[in-house]
Design a protein that fits this description.
The complex is a heterodimer of chains A (358) and B (286). Chain A is of the alpha+beta class and 358 residues long. Chain A has 9 helices and 19 strands. In chain A, a hairpin with a 4-residue loop joins strand 15 and strand 16. Chain A is elongated, with a radius of gyration of 25 Å. The chains are: A alpha+beta (358), B mainly alpha (286). The interface between A and B is medium-sized, with 31 and 23 residues.
Chain lengths: 358, 286
């Protein structure tokens, strides 16, 4: 087996009796864009800081091309990093900021100048070299920080919630920039965020953190379409959880009874349930249809309210058992609007629903 | 009725112009401008009109030595104060606030303790048979007492101790404004701790060092008590010389001229500080 480019092995970090990171193990191939996603305090930043060298892990290993990074101090790790807050050197111009990592490496002037020009053009700030960071907007400052982090061609770029201080529009703009820069430079990126949209939009793979462990790692589609747990299902995308009772499982296909008494079969499951076990059925809002299809299950609901969101319409519906659910039918938008305050059936594919223990 | 109200308005306005400032102006004129002018006049009229007092001060080697010594002490004190204050200020800036306020309290408390008391305390510590020399001899590190008092060493130690708070306070303000993440960023850029200090932390804290340094330097130039008690006769400072000229020699003219020179130097340095602070404002606190 070939050695992975960057390997985090059984990483553990405790603060007193609190375990911040619990034996996290990840292999990252060269050139991958991997995002650590999770709520605050889930250990994603602590893991990143162990790679950066800001925090010495309690145990475990961080290997870059097979060599341990842990005994290497931060300034010799040769890693680029963009921070949450603006960390540009305020007393230096934009060009001097980008040149800084090259200057401390004592690169010749000609190379420094060439590289600074190249980096400023990469982040599209060619004409800003002579300005001071204080004269730039937040978005521009983060782009300079990106240029500075990439100036010495680091094999790994770490990004710790770099867009959290920016407003929504700017965030989307810089996300596009980051994608482009990842494509153009091929640098391996470890990206930390608590924003699922950002993670889905940017990453090749997502590692979803919860309480210091990786709950699931995979592509955005993996996490969205095949969530390993209720936590993953509720963290990525929107979801409805319907209380259900497990009746039987045949060949990985379960039959359940919902709270309103209706029986649904053909639910795909990955784990074992006993007869009569309390479970929760997860159905994505957009998995609901207003018309029956082949092999769909029906659910009796009443539409309470609808709201128009441009590309789709959101419906709040109430099940016969009295639970409010979120329905976002991809088609039949006009129908959804007309159906207000009427009792009706909506439909979903049981094979696209997931069953989790209650 | 409405006319009456309109009439009252000027009275309600904030007092501005010369009128409102008159009491303060009178006070400053009476107790500051007049004495300074009198000082200047004395320096050019006593014992006879002319600039001979200044000629003596600038021409005589003895006085030149005192001037030189004054600037030497002020420079050494300022330099040592910066070196000692920087780590303390940095520690205060990054400390947890609860602990920081305790340390801050200790520093302020030392400032509030009587100056003479503190200087005498240093005399007790530094003299030939003092605590420091005794201890060093007892543990066998030295066989002869170190000359710690009545020389430049004594003056420097005593004055640095007194000046430290004036350096630490502005420096803490500047250092607190620096995001520690900036230093982590510098480290990941490849800067060794020394490089990060020299290229990032030091330049960013320069406004604080300049403000505190000028304050310490200016205060040191005119210091009297500490240099008199801890210094030797061979390194007399300007303030002590002025006192001697006026008290012992009753040479008011020469004393006034020396005092006036000291005032001019102080004001020049203060102007420099104002310019630095002004420049700082223009670049947005950098």
């Amino acid at each position: 087996m070939t050695e992975p480019f960057l390997s985090i092995r059984y990483l553990r970090k405790t603060f007193g009796s609190f375990v911040a990171v619990h034996d996290v193990t990840i292999d990252i191939p060269k050139g991958e864009f991997l995002t650590f996603l999770g709520p605050s305090g889930s250990g994603k930043s602590t893991t990143l800081y162990a790679v950066a060298g800001f925090q010495q892990p309690t145990s475990g290993e961080v290997l870059l091309e097979g060599r341990s990074l842990l005994s290497v101090p931060s300034h010799k790790r040769n890693i680029g990093m963009v921070f949450q807050r603006y960390t540009l050197f305020q007393h230096l111009t934009v060009a001097e900021n980008v040149a800084f990592p090259l200057r401390v490496r004592r690169r010749p002037d000609a190379e420094v100048n060439r590289k600074v020009a190249e980096m400023l053009s990469l982040v599209r700030l060619e004409s800003f070299g002579g300005r001071y960071p204080g004269a730039l907007s937040g978005g521009q400052q983060q782009r300079v920080a990106l240029a500075r982090a990439l100036a010495y061609d680091p094999p790994i770029l770490l990004m710790d919630e770099p867009l959290s201080a920016l407003d929504k529009k700017l965030r989307e703009e810089i996300q596009a920039e980051i994608r482009r820069i990842h494509r153009e430079t091929g640098v391996t990126i470890l990206y930390v965020t608590h924003d699922q949209d950002e993670a889905l939009h940017l990453s090749d793979r997502i590692a979803l953190f919860r309480d210091g462990r990786i709950e699931q790692i995979g592509t955005g589609e993996d996490l969205y379409l095949r969530p390993a747990s209720e936590f993953v299902a509720s963290f990525i995308g929107n979801s409805n959880f319907l209380p259900a009772e497990h009746l039987e499982t045949v060949n990985g296909s379960a039959t359940i009874r919902l709270a309103d008494g209706s029986v649904v079969s053909g639910v795909r499951i990955d784990q074992d349930f006993s007869h009569g076990q309390k479970t929760r059925l997860m159905v994505r809002p957009e998995a609901f249809r207003l018309r029956p299809g082949p092999a769909t299950a029906g659910l009796a609901v009443e539409f309470i309210d609808t709201a128009f969101f441009g590309e789709r319409r959101r419906v709040i519906a109430r099940t016969a058992a009295g639970q409010e659910i979120d329905v976002r039918p991809t088609s039949d938008m006009a129908q959804a609007h007309e159906g207000i305050a009427s009792s009706r059936q909506i439909f979903f594919d049981p094979a696209a629903a997931f069953l989790f223990p209650a | 009725m409405s006319g009456n109200l309109l009439h009252r308005q000027p009275i309600l306005r904030r007092p501005d112009g010369v009128g409102g400032a008159l009491p303060a102006l009178t006070l400053i004129t009476l107790f500051f401008v007049v004495p300074v002018v009198a000082l200047l006049l004395r320096s050019v009229t006593e014992p006879v009109p002319g600039l001979q007092n200044y000629a003596i001060l600038f021409g005589d080697g003895t006085y030149a030595r005192v001037f030189f010594n004054t600037f030497l002490v002020a420079t050494v004190v300022t330099a040592v104060t910066v070196i000692v204050a920087f780590p303390v200020a940095w520690m205060l800036a990054i400390m947890p606030p609860a602990l920081g306020s305790i340390v801050f309290g200790i520093i302020i408390l030392s400032m509030w303790t009587n100056l003479l008391t503190r200087t005498y305390a240093w005399m007790v510590l530094l003299q030939r048979t003092g605590v420091i020399n005794r201890t060093l001899m007892d543990i066998g590190l030295i066989s002869e007492p170190l000359p710690l008092i009545n020389n430049l060493t004594g003056v420097t130690i005593g004055m640095v101790y007194i000046m430290l708070p004036f350096m630490i306070l502005p420096l803490v303000g500047t250092l607190r404004a620096i995001d520690p993440m900036t230093l982590r960023a510098a480290a990941l850029c490849g800067a060794s701790p020394f490089n990060a200090f020299r290229r990032i932390l030091l330049p960013l804290s320069l406004p604080g060092i300049a403000a505190g340094g000028l304050m310490v330097f200016v205060m040191s130039l005119g210091y009297f008590v500490t240099p008199t008690l801890l210094g030797g006769t061979s390194n007399m400072m300007l303030a002590a010389m002025i006192a001697q000229m006026i008290q012992s020699l009753l040479n008011w003219g020469l004393g006034s001229a020396a005092a006036f020179i000291l005032l001019l130097v102080t004001m020049a340095l203060y102007a420099l500080q104002l310019r630095l602070v002004g420049a700082k404002r223009m670049t947005g606190g950098i």
